[in-house]
Amino acid sequence: MFANIYLSMQNKLKIINDPVHGFIRIPHEILFDVIEHPYFQRLRRIGQTGLLNLIFPGATHTRFHHALGAMHLMFTALETLRQKGIKITEEEEKGAMLAILMHDIGHGPFSHALENMLMDDWHHEKLSLLLMHKLNEEFAGQLSLAIEMFQGKYHRKFFNQLISSQLDVDRLDYLNRDSFFTGVSEGNINTQRIISMMNVCGEGELVIDAKGVYSIENFLTARMFMYWQVYYHKTSALAEFLLVKILERAKYLVSQGMDLPAGENLKYFLHRAKSSATDEDIYRFNQLDDNDIIHAMKSWQNSEDFILSYWCQCVIQRNLPKTVISTRPFDPEFVEEKIKKTNEFFGIDNGKELVHEIKRKLLPYDTEKQPIYLLQKDGKKIRLEESQDQLLSGLMVHKTARYILTFPRDISQTIS
Amino acid sequence: MFANIYLSMQNKLKIINDPVHGFIRIPHEILFDVIEHPYFQRLRRIGQTGLLNLIFPGATHTRFHHALGAMHLMFTALETLRQKGIKITEEEEKGAMLAILMHDIGHGPFSHALENMLMDDWHHEKLSLLLMHKLNEEFAGQLSLAIEMFQGKYHRKFFNQLISSQLDVDRLDYLNRDSFFTGVSEGNINTQRIISMMNVCGEGELVIDAKGVYSIENFLTARMFMYWQVYYHKTSALAEFLLVKILERAKYLVSQGMDLPAGENLKYFLHRAKSSATDEDIYRFNQLDDNDIIHAMKSWQNSEDFILSYWCQCVIQRNLPKTVISTRPFDPEFVEEKIKKTNEFFGIDNGKELVHEIKRKLLPYDTEKQPIYLLQKDGKKIRLEESQDQLLSGLMVHKTARYILTFPRDISQTIS
Amino acid sequence: MFANIYLSMQNKLKIINDPVHGFIRIPHEILFDVIEHPYFQRLRRIGQTGLLNLIFPGATHTRFHHALGAMHLMFTALETLRQKGIKITEEEEKGAMLAILMHDIGHGPFSHALENMLMDDWHHEKLSLLLMHKLNEEFAGQLSLAIEMFQGKYHRKFFNQLISSQLDVDRLDYLNRDSFFTGVSEGNINTQRIISMMNVCGEGELVIDAKGVYSIENFLTARMFMYWQVYYHKTSALAEFLLVKILERAKYLVSQGMDLPAGENLKYFLHRAKSSATDEDIYRFNQLDDNDIIHAMKSWQNSEDFILSYWCQCVIQRNLPKTVISTRPFDPEFVEEKIKKTNEFFGIDNGKELVHEIKRKLLPYDTEKQPIYLLQKDGKKIRLEESQDQLLSGLMVHKTARYILTFPRDISQTIS
Amino acid sequence: MFANIYLSMQNKLKIINDPVHGFIRIPHEILFDVIEHPYFQRLRRIGQTGLLNLIFPGATHTRFHHALGAMHLMFTALETLRQKGIKITEEEEKGAMLAILMHDIGHGPFSHALENMLMDDWHHEKLSLLLMHKLNEEFAGQLSLAIEMFQGKYHRKFFNQLISSQLDVDRLDYLNRDSFFTGVSEGNINTQRIISMMNVCGEGELVIDAKGVYSIENFLTARMFMYWQVYYHKTSALAEFLLVKILERAKYLVSQGMDLPAGENLKYFLHRAKSSATDEDIYRFNQLDDNDIIHAMKSWQNSEDFILSYWCQCVIQRNLPKTVISTRPFDPEFVEEKIKKTNEFFGIDNGKELVHEIKRKLLPYDTEKQPIYLLQKDGKKIRLEESQDQLLSGLMVHKTARYILTFPRDISQTIS
Known about the structure:
- Chains A, B, C, D: Pfam families: HD (PF01966), HD_assoc_2 (PF19276).
- Chains A, B, C, D: One of its GO terms (molecular function) is dGTPase activity.
- Chains A, B, C, D: Residues 59-184 form the HD/PDEase domain.
- Chains A, B, C, D: One of its GO terms (biological process) is dGTP catabolic process.
- 4 copies of one chain form a homotetramer.
- The first copy, chain A, is of the alpha+beta class.
- Chain A folds into 3 domains: 12-232 and 370-398, Hypothetical protein af1432 (Orthogonal Bundle); 234-318, Growth Hormone, Chain: A, CATH 1.20.1250.30; 321-363 and 399-416, no CATH class.
- Helix content of chain A is 48%, strand content 10%.
- Chain A contains 18 helices and 9 strands.
- Chain A has helices spanning 29-36, 38-41, 63-83, 90-101, 111-114, 124-138, 144-150, 157-163, 169-182, 191-196, 213-231, 234-255, 264-271, 279-285, 290-300, 306-316, 332-346, 409-415, and strands at 15-18, 22-25, 198-200, 206-209, 322-326, 356-362, 373-375, 381-383, 400-407.
- A 4-stranded mixed beta sheet of chain A has the order 3-4-7-8.
- Chain A is globular and about 70 Å long.
- Chains in contact: A-B, A-C, A-D, B-C, B-D, C-D.
């Protein structure tokens, strides 16, 4: 009986306050309708950067806000292209805005961290697409063009490139937003400047006006700094890692017959056997958000399983294990010693559960996967790294890796 | 066995990123220790502005961050006073920083909204004081001076005025922070400017250098705009109101013998009879945060009680009832008609549960309660509103009130 | 022979960096051409806020930059109106952008301060119009619509209101820009927010969407703070006053037969007798800028006339006379005494030349001259001050005045 | 008689508004006194970035403001070091603040561009030192420590490093300030973050806490972007080049007996023969500022010398010659052809005067000249480029060069 309440007419907000981009306008009715749908409202309860707020307390912003921000940048980008003489129909505008609005709709609790944990072999893009199709049914096909663009099947390539490439509005928004909310100014990019340099070349491909070369290089370095200073910060990497281990442990314990307190829907997934997604899976997945995981971890602090309770206390009380970082993998003997100390300190024999090497790697600028093109004054496009003006791009084409070893804080004290 | 894990040595962060104030330094060990205590870590899970993020999606910031920010401003204020020749000892500095750090420690889930709902007749300041005393025991009396300052018992009055007055660092931080995270620039104040104008007059009272008069007036108008545009925005007022009604309803249903799903600790309070606070009350209260309420509301959407499920859906799916606002109380006949329509529309007879008048009032500048004083060049202090330079203060000494009527959205459609 | 160099093709910049608004685009060829004309380039050498940089060292920005900024805000405003369904032709867009671009083109050195000093009875709007007509000839009538709009003769009233009213893009830009460059954050307004609330009502009049009421009130208070804190700051008022006195004195000395060093064109005006403007007047006026006045004052520091040299030293060495400020006119006896002391101190008998009362007055919101209208949801327009939501507008409809007495600094020392 | 007016007591500003750093405090009397001295006030009339405002219209800020900003950063840096336990006496604080305040006092009109033009073989640092000594006499030796620090003779090396090294407060201020005023956000650095990472190691050398590595790399890339995007922008390089050529030409013409209009002091230098600096030289140099050059160029637009008038028109009317840029020197044949076209177009035979190659080169991070050191947790210092955390520093140790060819705009039109 109440299931349809959300379908009733709403107080249609036409303008949303965004501290990052200023006002966000919602120029089309269908965008409203998607925003108001419970699938999308759920994103209000999914953090954009997971447990990063343990390290950067301002980073409490949500996927919901990011999706709106990216939609706004898409609008700005399309307006800019129009001012440069590129024809874009209203239908295309709607499609592109809807596609980017929905691009994260398949994210589960804690986004990337728990991807595949609840529903094996389901990553968020697969789920996003599935949910887009469900919504498309509800909205009588109004999302078809958006889905086409999202999948890269639409003939004008730049729409898909604005949705998903090395310089898409998704990245522009999340870098800008994450830098804003974390307060890490090294990651600050000027999206207005970058977007104002966007263009479309003859073949319908997204390019950057040549004079924007430094804005793009600044974007690439800012992104690299954000990765190593924020997303791959050793404590961030650790927190994300713990989340995964906690869920793994919980599923393992449940499989061993232990009864773990949890909300109804989370419990469903802890007990669910590997299989392809059913309608019930989808329904229940859409009820889950960060809240369910936090709530469970709070009560699991008192679990009789030492490992589970230890990790949950670590996270909830922000009393995190120790980490050391290196540019090379750790010496197995060094790791072995940490395990031994852990066993001794806690009087346990599965200390290896508490000692782990975490690896993070980054390719700052990928010349293979949709390279960035500059549009020269003579109308020719050229790869960024081949421009005579580039200063750093040519240097950023190699992967960097870092190795993080984590072990209980207490044992390090016994050592030092 | 694991209860004391948090007491073990921590990864002592000395600098915390804050997008509002830049870096926050933690200059004293005892400040760390309090920050790392689970009582304080709990504030990470209590939003600074409750459900306001339903209206301002950026407003997901926490009491934890606010408390750190206020502590930082206290440090800055004391440094400024020292540069003006006011002697402040290190003990006083510690005391003042600890006091403001802990000033919100007694906040329960959703702060003000649910104050008194879980534990009747307990407001957050009473609880904060109680928890400060508990912490003081744990920290062997190191918080005594802080508590004295918090209570206004310390002989140098300006410390308490910096903690709690019309121009305290609490207000400076929350206005600045809430304006930052909501994106409502009308509430933006320049805390650096205001603090740089602070001074202490002969009797040890906090005053503002006369030339700072416009910064103060700007602060007062910014605050007024924040109240009417953000905190008392009709939808904000409504969301807060719904939260209260939901908890009231839940307690009522429980008292009628209904079994409502909820986490263990929330359940405890739903069943708790009125009485003075026991040790168990305090313990369990400290386990609660916003998360418990959201988790409960998510499951109560499916309650068999129409009122409870209706409200919870309203909040969780952000499908809020309609509101109209007025400078005068609503005509009882108008209200009566809304109730009638509600009964008709839903086929219920307790429609009056869904129609409410909410009142909000504000005194922009209170000349009675700790008025703001200016320090003139001749060394005399003078009330802000009596200064010959003031432009608006004298006009902001009267209360303004607004009345908000809420009723189900659906019935308004049947009308129009 | 070289006179026409500027008419040759230029390096057509399409984007100009503006720290205030981000990038400024120049979407039409004719806008370029006007910008590149020497009449307009001259504005690069006319400061936006005259000698205010003596008090606010950042305030070195120019009329040139302001004119570009205002043109940019006009573009943004028109785009916003279009998104709300108001039809605006490309010709109208060009006209409105040209009109605001040229609105200050008649400003002479030090803008308002020296208005009428060089050419009596010529204020800058009269000159602007005259120069617009001259340009219109050069540009073969392409500026006709702009001139019509500037004069308020175009039938769609909102264009003129965007150019010149209590809430025009001129004010929006200068408040924003002056606050930015002075660093006086109390004057900071969010132009994006204000513009996004603009609308046009049935009769073609500029209105503000009702929900923007606080943004408008914030604009009015910010403007008031800027006047009293910056433009009418007692030292700013003094500096502007000295400039006028210096030019007056120079003209007087020249009329008495003294030979004062000055550039050729400034000399022309010092010697020019009162009369209506000739073609030579116009030509020479267009050669003048702040530079000529500063250059002259630098050499006049060594004039044999005590008064002139004293004032020029005051300004050039920033060794300004003393000022006291009051809400009431000064007592004639008090003034008399200052004159007496001045005569004694310097051993002169025209000390009254160095003692002056300067008056400044402001009406924060003028309900007579183009009041601000709100557009209610029901489509009716209502005066801002009559809205039920307004908090301060109704209180800002009265004039405030301040009186500043200035006298030589040295004499105040002999007294105290 | 009036020469000492500036020595009389002044309206001692204790706080100066700075849009870049917020308020600047002046904590010591002697700092005031130096600021009020005409030597320092002269810097108000010397632009920080010369003719760059022809390209970036916001860049009208002055050396005066920069010197105050750098002084403020020095204060902040010393406070930070104190909070980290480094002892710094009040005398040292005064010395360091005075030294940075005066570091640019020897700049002549248009700073670097015209260095050595007026007084051969005198660069600004030599002149700054000479003027510091003169001031030191006037201030009875109060500047001795400052001069010692400026010259690097003080035993605690970090004071000099804060004044002049690859990471000094001079660079921090000018990068931040120039980015702010130009609006080129790629050059934006967060000085607060960088300063908070400063430290002093055992030997008294300036180092950066290891965790600040990305802030430093961000600073180095931002600086590199500022050079190529702003300072070495081809049009910036051209404008600066024209200024030099104009002065050279003027001196040449004067040496040939031509009478060029100019203010008295500029005329003096145009006529001055090469020789070591006399007292009169110094006196007259201190009367000169940007104003004198602009004023002269305005009148030289009408010079009978074609070359001089052409260049002055180019600058004053912002009708600049054409430029092309390359990573390699230009082919002599290509240059020859441009000269030929120029001769043909203008009907002159000294067309080579109007065709020039300008070279700019940059070493982003100089590992030889005062390399940047990181302070590791273990207390050891390590070169930035050798840190395992560095991402880009190791790649920025090579020089980059660009070649700019300029020739009259008109001839390029005859070609195309």
